[in-house]
From TrEMBL:
Annotated Pfam families: NLPC_P60
SUPFAM superfamilies assigned to the protein according to its UniProt record, in alphabetical order: Cysteine proteinases
Family: Belongs to the peptidase C40 family.
Annotated keywords: Coiled coil, Hydrolase, Protease, Thiol protease
Keyword Ribosomal protein: no
Any single biological process term in GO: proteolysis
Designated name of the protein: Glycoside hydrolase
Species annotation: Mycolicibacterium aromaticivorans JS19b1 = JCM 16368
Domain of life where this protein originates: Bacteria
Species classification: Bacteria, Bacillati, Actinomycetota, Actinomycetes, Mycobacteriales
Domain named NlpC/P60: residues: 220-337
GO MF entry, a single one: cysteine-type peptidase activity
Region Disordered: start-end pairs: 25-50
Coiled-coil annotated residue ranges, if any: 115-142
Length: 337
């Protein structure tokens, strides 16, 4: 059985090696613009002043995008470290279980116990990989959205400076609105040219990016922490009425995870459906609560999104806390952080 245990450990070690051992995210550092004034006697003073104002407004827009990019980068680093910690825990638990069961492997029952236990550890590692992959796909989509936003901001800046100096010249939507395809939500970036013509472009950009990534950076961080806490309980048993930390029912899991992240939630699905702000199915992001299994006008189940198409849930007394696909049927999505 030693060779079998060694083979299982090699597989688990390979999976553990997928996750980064150390290292932090990069970041974008922004410096405020310095725009020299035109000479007082210059006939270009008005045009130069307008161009300078346009440049400052563009900088305000890009600073907001920088903050969102840095936040997404930090979330990616945190997800990598969470994955590494989870994978390390699975491997260590497999080693401990193998050592404890080894003395009994002289009998068929002991061998069966060992194989079953190792199968459970391999399945746990696969769940960890699947969870991290789904979260990374979401973060990659966010980065692509930010890249498009930077591009649109630059084009809008040129439009504002060279087509009337703030006189309202807009930019084409580049086919990102309506049903023209591309990344979900990209039509919102067609608003950027108009924002750059306003006097408070930073606030306007904050509103735009909050539509994609949450009401503020802290809220998005709390949601990501809640997701991480919920995923840390993968494999925990379902017990009706349980609120953790070792067993959960559906709403107990969401309440416990958000509580650990510093957000207080009601106890039952009947109350959760009235909590936070409603979100459309097309705009689901990590941390959103999804109310489902509707009966007699009320939701009988709640799950937590870990990506636009994957959730973590405490499903029922026959199953443990697990990752699942987005539920079907009528859904109501609430954003609570």
């Amino acid at each position: 059985m030693g060779a079998y245990i060694a083979q299982v450990d090699r597989v688990l070690a390979a999976a553990q090696g997928v996750f980064p051992a150390a290292g932090g995210p990069g970041s974008i550092q922004s410096q405020g613009p310095g725009v020299p004034a035109a000479p007082p006697d210059s006939a270009l003073s008005t045009g130069a002043g307008n161009a300078g104002d346009g440049y400052k407004r563009t900088w305000g827009t890009v600073t907001g995008l920088d903050a969102q990019t840095n936040g997404t980068s930090a979330a990616g680093a945190a997800e990598g470290q969470n994955g590494r910690a989870g994978a390390t825990g699975v491997r260590q638990s497999a080693a401990s279980a193998a050592a404890a069961i080894a003395p009994a492997t002289g009998s068929p029952a002991g061998v069966k116990t060992l194989v079953t236990n190792m199968d459970d550890r391999l399945a746990a590692m696969q769940r960890q990989l699947d969870s991290t992959r789904a979260q990374n796909q979401l973060l990659a989509t966010r980065m692509r959205q930010m890249a498009m936003a930077y591009r649109q901001a630059g084009q809008a800046s040129q439009a504002g400076m060279f087509r009337g100096m703030g006189g309202g010249g807009g930019m084409p939507s580049m086919g990102m609105g309506g049903g023209s395809g591309g990344l979900p939500g990209m039509g919102m970036f067609s608003k950027l040219p108009g924002m750059l013509n306003g006097q408070n472009s930073r606030n306007a950009t904050d509103q735009l990016t909050s539509d994609l990534f949450g009401r503020d950076g802290n809220g998005s961080d709390r949601a990501n922490r809640a997701v991480a806490f919920a995923k840390s309980k993968l494999g925990a048993p379902y017990v009706w009425g349980a609120t953790g930390p070792n067993a959960f029912d559906c709403s107990g899991l969401t309440q416990w995870a958000y509580g650990k992240a510093g957000v207080s939630l009601p106890r039952t699905t009947y109350d959760l459906v009235h909590t936070g702000t409603p979100v459309s199915r097309a705009n689901i992001r990590a941390g959103d609560l999804i109310l489902c299994n509707w009966q007699n006008g009320r939701p009988e189940h709640v799950v937590m999104a870990v990506s636009p198409n994957m959730v973590v849930e405490a499903p029922n007394r026959h199953e443990r806390v697990k990752l699942s696909s987005l539920p079907s049927g009528h859904l109501e999505i609430r954003r609570v952080a």
